[in-house]
Amino acid sequence: MSKLTGAEIVIECLKEQGVDTVFGYPGGAILNIYDALYKHQDEITHILTSHEQGASHAADGYARATGKVGVCFATSGPGATNLVTGIATAQMDSIPVVAITCNVGVSLLGKDSFQEIDIAGVTMPITKHNFIVKDVSRLAGVIRRAFTIARSGRPGPVLIDITKDVTAAKYEYEYQTPEEVTPQVDTIREEDMDKAVELIRNCQKPFIFAGGGAVISNASEELKAFAHKIQAPVADSLMGKGAFDGTDPLYTGMVGMHGTKTSNFGFTECDLLIVVGARFSDRVTGNASKFAKNAKILQIDVDAAEINKNIQTYASIIGDAKVVLRKLNARLDPMNHDEWIMHIERLKDMYPLRYDKNQLTGPFIMEKIYEITDGDAIITTEVGQNQMWAAQYFKYKSPRTLLTSGGLGTMGYGLGAALGAKMGRKDKLVINIAGDGCFRMNMNELATATRYNIPFIEVIMNNHVLGMVRQWQNLFYGKRYSHTVLNDTVDFVKLAEAMGAKGYRVEKKEDFEPVFREAVSLNIPVVIDCQIPCDDKVFPMVSPGAPISDAFDDVDLKIE
User: Fold this and answer.
1) Partners of 412 in beta bridges
2) Which of 55, 178, 252, 520 maximizes the CB count within 10 A of its CB?
């Protein structure tokens, strides 16, 4: 058993946990850890981001793309607080991230010392758990616990704040094999299973709703088998994209505020709604009192706190979605719902997604990217119209291929997440879909991409406005465009080139494909600035507070 400094223990514990990449930004309080990391550069790759927020989003993107724990470092004070938005993003979407910050020495705590902040107090509401380490003897145990907590049950971010003197102090270190995290099964009750099986056997119009939990539990195969066994259509939430193959005939698209009419109307008509790992966000349910009003709701979720939180269920099963679906599949015989499926197919024919085919638009760009890549890419997004078009018009065939901020809706998320995703999945083409407003928020991370030559493609849907906010102003605020116009002289192509990336501007739809194909072939950081109309809207749409059965599109608006 050797004696190591606290900083060395941190690095050894990260190696124990199989960490191969860390995103961070050094500073005085965390300097000892960076010094220890220096000696292990061949084992742990450190990506120096342009801002700590970029590091937190990169760790999150890495986690979403790989299924492993993402790790980020920051120093005390503003370094630590700059992680807050990224930690909250991970918390809202149940992403396993371990954030390691360092603080002033124990003797300086509570004295408003230089760059002192109670980061554990700040992040308490937005972490699954957090720790303050003031004693080097506790350090290794805390790090190991943090990784277990981040990965187990419903995953989430964990913060470890270590005082600087602990990183310098010495203590015995002995290697430990990481604790195996097994799926949560002890909460799956037989009586709940019986009730679920009975419900499924007796229904005539089942509908399956897949959320982020189906992705997290790696339940794709079980979900596909389940849907085909009971012959039920499948819709997903934004976070559930890819859990069920978007090219499968049973797939109906996203549900909710910008969901397809087929999914929204189907939910309203079904007699049994089977919910797999979704939390009934307000953007999904619309008017909760009218949501799936004809259906009994069967909710499958690993987190008991989600049952009856937003929507009253008829029955529920608490446990890992993959295990629950496997158990249901074993107990159910194939079912026939031909008439119901034919009705859903008619809805698909009546209400396809539509957009203006005569000009360069967000939907056209997404369809073209899908066509060129054949869906074999990881798409990260920012938030707003760009995000919704990416969800609607790209067919996600497998999980962990759409990385986006669902719960928190974090503008500026996508670029950092793209870097993290590419570091975790070097074999995949990574494309970040951005709006011009979002791009401005964390565009400094382009410098990170070029510093390490992390190849990815940034596609900016540049409408010179804050598109989604403007859409609401147009529809609900009498076209009073208060502070949403971004008409200025900023040149994104020159900006990209100034940061060492390749930049293109696309103004006509026929120019997009050759530019995008060239961008793919270059295998370097590329920015494509696509000039799209300022008043293009995301349709269908449900007005805030309205039932999802009231979904409308531009055709409906013209009729009115």
Assistant:
1) none
2) 55
Selection from 238, 164, 191 nearest residue 413 by Cα: 238
User: How would you classify the pairing of strands 457-462 and 206-210?
Assistant: unpaired
Same domain? For 201 and 345 the reply is yes
Residue 247: CB atoms within 10 A of its CB come to 9
Q: Domain for residue 35, yes or no? A: yes
CATH code for the domain of 277: 3.40.50.1220
Q: Are residues 329 and 269 in the same domain?
A: yes
Is the preceding omega at residue 540 within 30 degrees of 0, hence cis?
yes
For residue 130, the cross-strand partners are 159
Contact 345, 519 (CB under 8 A): no
Residue 376 lies in a domain: yes
Distance linking the first and last C-alpha atoms of the chain: 77
Q: Is 10 domain-assigned?
A: yes
Are residues 295 and 428 located together in one domain of the fold?
A: no
Say which CATH number the domain at 423 has: 3.40.50.970
Please list the residues that pair with 45 across neighbouring strands: 21
**CB 6, CB 51: distance < 8 Å:** no
Work out the number of other CB atoms within 10 angstroms of the CB of residue 255.
32
Domain match, 257 and 315 both: yes
Tokens of 28: 């005085």
Tell me if 514 is assigned to some domain: yes
Domain housing 108 = 2-173
Give me the active site residues, please: 52, 114-115, 164, 468
Strands 430-435 and 402-403: unpaired
Same domain, 402 and 479: yes
Question: Contact 43/84 with Cβ under 8 angstroms?
Answer: no
Rg (CA), the chain: 24
Task: Please check whether residues 233 and 366 belong to one and the same domain.
Answer: no
Structurally, the chain folds into a number of domains equal to 3
- Give pLDDT tens digits along the chain (560 positions): 789 999 999 999 999 999 999 999 999 999 999 999 999 999 999 999 999 999 999 999 999 999 999 999 999 999 999 999 999 999 999 999 999 999 999 999 999 999 999 999 999 999 999 999 999 999 999 999 999 999 999 999 999 999 999 999 999 999 999 999 999 999 999 999 999 999 999 999 999 999 999 999 999 999 999 999 999 999 999 999 999 999 999 999 999 999 999 999 999 999 999 999 999 999 999 999 999 999 999 999 999 999 999 999 999 999 999 999 999 999 999 999 999 999 999 999 999 999 999 999 999 999 999 999 999 999 999 999 999 999 999 999 999 999 999 999 999 999 999 999 999 999 999 999 999 999 999 999 999 999 999 999 999 999 999 999 999 999 999 999 999 999 889 999 999 999 999 999 999 999 999 999 999 999 999 999 999 999 999 999 999 999 999 999 998 988 65
